[in-house]
Amino acid sequence: MNPATRPRERRDDVRLLAIDRRSGATHDGAVEDLSGLLRRGDLLVVNDAATLPASLRGVSPGGESIEVRLAGSDGGGRWRAVIFGAGDWRTPTEERGAAPLLGVGERLLFGDDGEPLRARIVAVDPRHWRLVELEFEVDEEELWAGLYRLGAPIQYAYLAGELDLWSVQSVFAGPPWAVEMPSAGRPLSWGVLQGLLAQGVEVARVTHAAGLSSTGDPSLDRLLPLPERYAIPRSTVAAILRTKAAGGRVIAVGTTVIRALEGSFVRHGELRPGEGVTALLLSEETELAIVDGVITGMHGPGESHRHLLEAFASPALLDRAWTHAVEAGYLAHELGDIALLADFEPGALRSPSAPG
Question: Considering the entire predicted model, what is its pTM?
Fold first, then answer.
C-alpha cells in the first residue's frame, strides 16, 4: 500500500473502510460516515495524549553524531530512549549508520544553540544495547523548554518533508505524553465529533503514552510496544459502564486506547480509574473485556500493529480487507486512511466491496 506522504489540507479529508467483524462485509466511505456507522448509545473513546518533539540530535561522548528518539517516560524523571547513528529521518531506519555502543554513566549533549541539553545514561536494557534510560541534567521546567526548543517530531523516510509539531496533534490533544502520534484520532475534526454527538454518540477520553513504532532493527522492533503509561478518568469509567449496561458499543480510537482500557482490566480484574502502566500485547488469543470495536490505521501482514488487530478479527478477514484496501487505493501510515472494525447490524454495510 502506498503511504500518505504529507498532511491533508483538511484533517478529515481521509477515507474510511468499515469492516463487519461477523460477516466480513465492507464499506468504502469517508470519515464523515462515522455518524452513520456508529449509532445512538455508542461510546467513542479517544486518546488525548499530545505528541512530543521526541527526536533529539546530539553528540556522543566519543564525538559521533547521533539521534536519540525518546520512547517514553516513567513520570519520575527517567526517559527510555533508542540510540540511532548518523543520518536523519530521510534515511530509512534500517539503513541508518551504526549507533555507538554507550554505557551507564556516559553523557550525551543535544543541541548547538548555546543552550544545549545534557543527559546521562543511567541504564542499558539487557535485551538490546540501543535501548537505554536517560536522566536529563536540568530541572523539569528547563527540560520541557529544551525539548520544545531542540526536539522535532519523530518521522520516517516515506514522508515528503519535515513535519511541523502541529501536524502530529489531534484536535483534542492534552498532556504531552506520546512520543509518536496516536494517529487514529488525527482525522477526527471538530466537525466530525460534533456530527457524532448530534447522533447520540458519546465521546470519552484516556491518556496513553503512545510509543515508538519502528527502530529499523528487527531484534529491537520485536520488543515493541514497550510498557506505556496511561491515565483513565473516573468519568470515562462511568461512561463505559453506562454504555455497556445500555447495550451500546465501546469503540476505541486506536490500539493505544485498547491497551489502556484492557490493560487496566487485566491488571485489576475490573476497569478502574487512575494512572498505570500496561505491557499488554494484543493478539488473536486476547479476550477483550471492554472494547467492542476499533478505529485504526491501515496495517498489513507482518506489521506489529496488524498483530494487535487480530484481537478483533481473524487473520483471513484482515488479509481480505487489506487486499481490498490496496486495490482501492487507500493510503497507509500515520497520515493515511483509517478503518473501523466492529459488529454491525445485518445489511448495514452496503457497497460494491461487500462480498456477495
Answer: 0.94
